[in-house]
Amino acid sequence: MMQKVTIIKVGGAVVESPDTLNDFLNDFVKLEGAKILVHGGGRSATAMAERLQIETKMVEGRRVTDQNMLEIVTMVYGGLVNKNIVAKLQSKGLNALGLTGADMNIIQAHKREVKHIDYGFVGDVDAVNQKAILQLLTQDVTPIVAPLTHDKQGNLLNTNADTIAASLATALAKQCEVTLYYGFEKDGVLLDANDDHSVIHAITPKEFDALKEQGAIHSGMIPKLTNCFDAIAKGVKSVYIGHISNINCPQKGTNLCG
Ligand SMILES: Nc1ncnc2c1ncn2[C@@H]1O[C@H](COP(=O)(O)OP(=O)(O)O)[C@@H](O)[C@H]1O
Ligand SMILES: CC(=O)N[C@@H](CCC(=O)OP(=O)(O)O)C(=O)O
Predict the structure, then answer these.
(1) C-beta of 12 in contact with ligand 2 (< 6 A)
(2) Residue 153 gets which letter from DSSP?
(3) Ligand 1 closest atom vs CA 217
(4) Measured in angstroms, how far is the CA atom of residue 198 from the centroid of ligand 1?
(5) What are the 10-residue block averages of pLDDT along the chain, 258 residues in total?
(6) d(Cα 144, Cα 191) in Å, to the nearest integer?
(7) pTM greater than 0.95
(8) Which domain of life is it from (predicted)?
(9) C-alpha to C-alpha distance for 164 and 144, rounded to whole angstroms
(10) Tell me, what's the ipTM?
């Protein structure tokens, strides 16, 4: 039988608040079967940059990552955020292992080409070492993946956590039945971003196009949904966007349909 794997992505708002993170991790521990956690931490990186008096620049939801910012995101994502999650999960009895894309060469990327915008040390994913990940899962190890990749030439690169989750899901879908869940602070994709009760329970690619045109889905939500539909097209069985407190009942959120 094909192995089932659940991949959960949590963003900056979750990892920033200790109480929210703790509640989420309790739910994550309860999640049955093989699982992987991909975390963001954009807000924590911005806060650390401010403490170090380094300016943060974002273009279309992506962080412009110069040498100083690369040092910050490496420390914050690969260090503080990742190891804090691992320690908390270990305290709850889950055998978590923290990884960046460089560890076991799990995610190889290349520095994004400069076109109109120079994003600096931002990586676009080339390859995922699904064999290494499957070996860990088989040993009952739960990978906790930070949004950092590497170019196999010794350089770390900053890569959006939504993209990391979709890339892992797509690679594992070749051998496993994968569920991908994007957890955030809303109940799902909203028809009206200001109305928390307007959750759209199912979206097809056609409906996505219409919602973009109407302006209901805009800015940061566009790359998130694009990543979701991309993953479905490449064989990921189920993709959901929903509240972080609903990872054990994904149907309460938005189901992205093929
Ligand atoms: N239609 C919508 N439905 C849900 N959230 C929306 C919508 N439009 C905009 N948003 C905003 O998008 C944010 C999620 O995007 P982002 O900040 O990239 O999250 P994350 O850090 O979890 O990846 C939400 O916090 C929400 O405020
Ligand atoms: C290239 C790029 O933009 N990387 C992201 C990685 C962190 C992330 O994705 O965090 P959230 O999930 O909390 O937004 C960034 O530095 O913000």
Answers:
(1) yes
(2) S
(3) 1
(4) 14
(5) 90 91 98 97 97 93 93 98 98 98 98 94 98 97 98 97 97 97 96 93 96 89 93 97 97 95
(6) 32
(7) yes
(8) Bacteria
(9) 12
(10) 0.95
Give the per-residue pLDDT at 61.
76
Burial class for 4, CB neighbours closer than 10 Å (0-12, 13-18, 19+): middle
pLDDT digits (tens, 9 = 90+) for 164-215: 999 999 999 999 999 999 999 999 999 998 999 999 999 999 999 999 999 9
CATH dotted code for 3-256: 3.40.1160.10
What stretch of H or E contains 189?
A: none
147 touches ligand 2 (CB under 6 Å): yes
Pocket perturbation via mutation, ligand 2, pick of 118, 160, 181, 186 by most ligand atoms within 8 A of CB: 160
- The binding-site residues of ligand 1, defined as CB within 6 angstroms of any ligand atom, are 11-12, 40, 42, 61, 162, 184-186, 189-190, 193, 216-217, 220-221, 224
The whole-number pLDDT of residue 218 equals 87
Beta partners for residue 39, in sequence order: 10
Asked if 171 and 231 count as a contact pair (C-beta separation under 8 A), the reply is no
What is the DSSP-derived secondary structure letter of residue 148? E
Please state the atom number of ligand 2 nearest to the C-alpha of residue 220.
14
Strands 96-99 and 142-145: parallel
Distance 16 CA to ligand 1 centre (A): 16
